[in-house]
Amino acid sequence: MTHDAIAVIDFGGQYAHLIATKVRRQHVLAEIRQPEDPTELFRRYKGIILSGSPSLSSHGEDSAYNKAIYDLDIPILGFCFGHQEIAKHYGGTVVHGASEWGPADLQVVGDSPLFKGLSSVERVFMSHFDSVTSVGPGFEEIGFTTLGEAGASHRFAAIASDALRRYGCQFHPEVDDTVHGDEMIANFVLGICGCSPSWTMDKYVEERVAQVRAQVGDQSVFLLASGGVDSTVAARLLGMAIGPERLHLLHVDNGLMRKDESRDVLEAFRAFGLDRNLHFVDASDAFLTALAGAVEPEQKRKIIGNTFIEVFEREARSRGIERHLLGQGTIYPDTIETGGTKRADTIKTHHNRVPIIEEMLRQGRVVEPLADLYKVEVRELGEKLGIPHDLIWRHPFPGPGLGVRLLCSTGEALRSGFEAIEPAVAEVAQRYGLSALALPIKSVGVKADLRSYEHPVLISGDAPWERLVEAAGHLFKGVAGINRCIWNLGPRAPGRARPLPATVTRDRLALLREADHLVMEGLRRHGIYGDIWQCPTVLVPLEMDGAGREFVIIRPIHSERAMTATPAQLPPRLRDELRAQILALPGVSGLALDVTTKPPGTIEWE
Ligand code: XMP
User: Fold this and answer.
1) Closest listed residue to residue 23, CA positions, set 43, 44, 4, 1
2) Residue of the nearest CA to atom 6 in ligand 1?
3) Which residues lie across from 5 on neighbouring strands?
4) 125 with 177: CB under 8 angstroms?
5) Considering its fold, how many domains does the chain have in total?
6) Nearest to residue 132, comparing CAs of 72, 75, 82?
7) Does the beta carbon of 534 sit less than 6 angstroms from any atom of ligand 1?
8) What is the distance between the alpha carbons of residues 408 and 295, in angstroms, rounded to a whole number?
9) Residues 431 and 552 in one domain
10) Is position 154 annotated as part of the catalytic site?
């Protein structure tokens, strides 16, 4: 390893990735490691950080992980669960209780190198059930927390043994709500571990180019170029490394793309001078034929994934490039199996980890120049490589494209549990001066890290944005079987909703494409495209008017890593414009705005 590096042990959730991103911001490489990884593997790191855990408890039974790491002469820092584990390992006690949620004031005790340069009182973010109540020999309390003037204090919020170079924080320095969390992480990584901040983007480009050249030798590379950020940045980097003559790009129009997307993608690659071997195939017939009649979301995803592989193999053969190495824009979270990324892994299976590609990986025939970067770093790299800002900051678009935004149905109304759901949603909505209609279809959501298929509720009426989001929150908490809440933008509250039989067809895709185009144009016209992480537009086969016309839903969200999301507000003028434009599309009878957080609803509807 040419750079000093930190190992982040992943005890679950999203904490580990957040910590790794924050360490990398100090220009020090951070890698995710699993709790059971062998001790040998840790020797090459200059420091270890133990992440928090959403499900593990430090209290009670022994937590299973490789405790031999404590025998290494390498500094260790733990956050939350990790903090409690360090306390316990060195003879302290951890009890269940004294839980805290949200901001607290850390009263710094002494002059620990962990808090070097910080004030005597620091705003930190707490989120825990268990607490450390005493520390073992050699350890001391370097901070406790208080909340408000009369607030009870929480002892041992930060502990340390400078001699052993072991440190723990009950709070989460990796979250932005810990105001000087970055400084604390820098104090550990650069100060206590003595890492040199050599991991910069310039260095990354230099090293990666050299690595690609070494791996590829005099062979050629074949890359599927969807037009998304990752494959575009990968293409640019590969082009720099091996030159445009030996880089073959294939863009597949699967019929599930946005309006004019393939045209724009091909133009962008031409503009980069990567069109020497730019191949294009309109495979929409193959995809739509394979999808004919499919209704179930997972079945649709599988069909799309399998068709991709078939098209890819056929095209590679027919163009005589199947012997080339395969280039992929795989990014770091896709390569690691953790609680937090397992799901991401399965949703992306179709693209970069299907059996045929796994086999090529084993044979060393896959080039993945971005495999150790996070999305935000890929974007930074893209800017460095001169890719236009607009392309780099495009909203993420799922591999199965509009295929997962075009809901299908057999026409059967799904109403199980409605006797309880209907009065319950009406009662909650009434408290907010709104009316509610439970919808007899299901959409996907995520609860406790698992996918759930449950009913959406349509709420109608006028209320300030915050009240709408609050009402949605109450619905999710108070009514079982609900995972999504949408706010009616149509002129009147519909009294009933009936599913229509619907599958993936060219006509429905054309309608969705048009509605999606109007929404994207609207976001750009109002200058808010860049403030919003992603904004799916979804076509739902529900008729409200008895005329067989469908429902359109707009889902603007704010997010950082797509693991969680909050609904984004649209300016009232834009709402009015979209209402007029989308309701005027033939075949559309209703329009609603999704006001669901993730969890319980996922970003996509399927
Ligand atoms: P969800 O819907 O799970 O989405 O909240 C999280 C992020 O992943 C994208 N997504 C996908 N991307 N293939 C992909 O390449 C898929 O099957 C897929 N499903 C969801 C989604 O757009 C969001 O950015």
Assistant:
1) 4
2) 562
3) 29
4) yes
5) 3
6) 82
7) yes
8) 5
9) yes
10) no
Tell me the pairing of strands 76-79 and 47-50: parallel
Nearest CA, atom 22, ligand 1: 398
538 lines ligand 1 (CB under 6 A): no
- What residues contact 197, with CB distance under 8 A and at least 6 apart? 26, 27, 28, 190
Ligand 1 geometric centre to CA of 411 (Å): 26
Regarding whether 432 and 369 lie in a shared domain, the answer is no
List the one residue out of 103, 98, 187, 207 whose CA is nearest residue 142.
187
Q: What is the CATH number of the domain that holds 459?
A: 3.30.300.10
The last residue of one of the domains, among 192, 224, 244, is 192
* Domain annotation covers residue 308: yes
Domain at 327, CATH number: 3.40.50.620
Report phi then psi at 139, rounded to 5.
-100, 150
Going by pLDDT thresholds of 50, 70 and 90, the confidence category of residue 129 is: confident
For residue 172, indicate whether it is catalytic.
Answer: yes
For the chain, the residue count is 606
109-123, 144-158, 292-306: which range is least confident on average?
Answer: 144-158
For ligand 1, the distance from its centroid to the CA atom of residue 533, given in whole angstroms, is 12
> Domain of 186?
5-192
The preferred substitution site among 604, 605, 606 for testing ligand 1, maximizing ligand atoms within 8 Å of CB, is 604
- Contacts (Cβ under 8 Å, ≥6 apart) of 68: 39
Nearest atom in ligand 1 to 604's CA? 2
Last residue of a domain, one of 158, 192, 226: 192
Question: Which residue's C-alpha comes closest to atom 18 of ligand 1?
Answer: 398
Residue percentage of the chain with pLDDT more than 70 = 95
pLDDT at residue 587, as a whole number: 95
* Token couple for 138: 């050699």
Of 224, 346, 347, 606, the residue with max ligand 1 atoms within 8 A of its CB, to mutate for a pocket test, comes to 347
- C-beta of 562 in contact with ligand 1 (< 6 A): yes
> Which token pair is 343?
């799901």
Predicted confidence at residue 152, as pLDDT, reads 66
Residue 148: which CATH number? 3.40.50.880
Atom 7 of ligand 1, nearest CA residue: 562
Indicate whether 149 and 9 sit together in one domain.
yes
User: Cβ contacts of residue 155 below 8 Å, gap of 6+?
Assistant: 132, 133, 141, 144
| CA pair distance 187, 77, nearest whole angstrom | 11
160 with 287, same domain: the answer is no
Does residue 408 sit within a domain?
no
213 and 231 belong to one structural domain: yes
Residues 294 and 348 in one domain: yes
Residues 172 and 243 in one domain: no
| Residue 485 bears catalytic tag | no
Q: Is the CB of 398 under 6 A from ligand 1?
A: yes
Residue of 129, 136, 131, 119 whose CA lies nearest to 169: 131
Cβ neighbour number for residue 100 with a 10 Å cutoff: 19
Please state the pTM of the whole predicted model: 0.84
Query: Which amino acid type is present at position 321?
Result: I
pLDDT at residue 343, rounded to an integer = 38
- The sign of the dihedral angle between the CA atoms of 87, 88, 93, 96 is positive
* Ligand 1 site, residue 396, Cβ cutoff 6 A: yes
Helix (H, G, I), strand (E, B) or coil at 326: strand
Q: Is the CB of 348 under 6 A from ligand 1?
A: yes
CA-nearest residue for atom 11, ligand 1, is 398
Is residue 138 lining ligand 1, measured as CB closer than 6 Å? no
DSSP state of 493: -
